[in-house]
Design goal:
Blueprint lengths: L12 H21 L7 H24 L7 H29 L11 H8 L21 H15 L6 H18 L9 H5 L5 H14 L11 H17 L7 H26 L7 H7 L1 H22 L6 H35 L10
Length: 361
């Protein structure tokens, strides 16, 4: 069988805007958490919700732009060139700071093997902990799940239809998800991958199947209030109910439900925002969301260090939060322009991909 790399070129402005919103949720949560010794649980909900949205979007996009068989090498190259350079730069910079300026950090530790594991996307315990499997650059834990999703996706490169691949992926990911019922959370590398965090990727793939078949084509503006009601209800439950007292599966299901409903809302309303200019502020935030996700912790740490050095009172706290968030957005835009975009162009050039709009599977 001759393998063709097939890419769907359509861009969803609504999904891109939602990606920016997801990154902003993480930034807001971390900005508020950083100066607190014991931050309230609701701030953790912000970050977890943002990552859940990211995972659903990732499953959707990766599945949607590969409706048929594809070249594994080209796919892997594009994913590596998209994810690795910025992550490695941020991680190495953080390692240098941890070695030479350790006083800047609250809990960041460094060992050579920990750095290697982080760069290789291998789950490893944070030095000195027994259940914290985040890499040196803490937000990078989600990239370990992204990478395992990509590797499993590659296993089914030969599928001649997206539906067949989604079914096989459902079986493969379903085994890992089911395994989460039989292992203790955060107990081992095995437990890291036998995890409910894989559910959003799977949901995103099925949303891609529905999108490919025009499932949302009959959606009318009159139906929007009903959809928004369920979105508001699901999000309200996240922030009003202490999910940590519930079984882990139910907690993850609550995040998944809210995330899927948000992505569905974005897809249903895309027809009204797809004509937005690339210069639109919300679209630009979405474009630089990956940079925002990885680089904001540097800005957050530096911002609060300046705040503490100035000795400002509690009255300045809201101003500091707003200033740090704005600075994070500006830093992300700069990172996107000077790091992400050049590497993305290199990825498209080297992979020698053939673009064409596919027919529904």
């Amino acid at each position: 069988m001759q393998t063709n790399t097939v890419i769907q070129s359509e861009k969803f402005n609504s999904v891109q805007i939602l990606r920016g919103l997801a990154a902003l949720l993480v930034v807001i949560g971390h900005t508020l958490q950083h100066p607190m010794d014991e931050p309230p649980p609701i701030l953790g909900v912000l970050g977890a919700f943002g990552v859940s949205i990211f995972f659903v979007i990732s499953g959707f996009i990766i599945s949607y732009i590969h409706p048929r068989d594809f070249a594994p090498a080209g796919f892997l190259w594009r994913r590596i060139i998209r994810i690795v350079p910025l992550y490695w730069l941020c991680t190495i910079f953080l390692a240098l700071c941890a070695v030479y300026l350790p006083s800047l950090f609250k809990s960041t530790s460094f060992t050579p093997y920990y750095l290697f594991s982080s760069l290789a996307f291998i789950p490893e315990l944070v030095p000195g902990t027994v259940d914290d499997w985040r890499p040196l650059l803490k937000p990078g834990w989600s990239l370990n799940y992204e990478m395992i999703f990509y590797l499993i996706f590659i296993l089914f490169w030969w599928c001649e239809s997206s539906l067949r691949r989604t079914v096989f992926m459902s079986l493969a990911l379903g085994v890992l998800i089911a395994g989460a019922f039989f292992v203790e959370r955060n107990s081992s590398v095995t437990a890291f991958y036998l995890n409910f965090n894989l559910m959003p990727f799977l949901a995103g793939m099925w949303l891609a199947e529905m999108q490919r078949r025009g499932f949302w084509s009959d959606f009318s503006v009159n139906s929007l209030p009903v959809l928004l009601f369920f979105v508001t209800l699901s999000i309200g439950l996240l922030f009003s109910v202490d999910l940590t007292v519930l079984p882990l599966f139910i907690e993850n299901l609550a995040y998944l439900t809210a995330s899927v409903l948000l992505v569905v809302t974005a897809l249903c309303t895309d027809r009204w925002v797809k004509t937005l200019s690339p210069r639109n502020l919300f679209v630009q935030i979405g474009d630089s969301s990956y940079s925002l996700y990885l680089t904001h912790m540097f800005v957050v740490g530096a911002g609060w260090a300046v705040f503490n050095r100035l000795g400002l009172g509690g009255w300045a706290f809201p101003l500091a939060v707003v200033a740090i968030i704005i600075a994070s957005l500006v830093g992300a835009k700069i990172s996107y322009l000077i790091i992400e975009k050049p590497f993305m162009r290199l990825g498209r050039k080297k992979a020698k991909l053939q673009y064409r709009v596919p027919q529904p599977s």
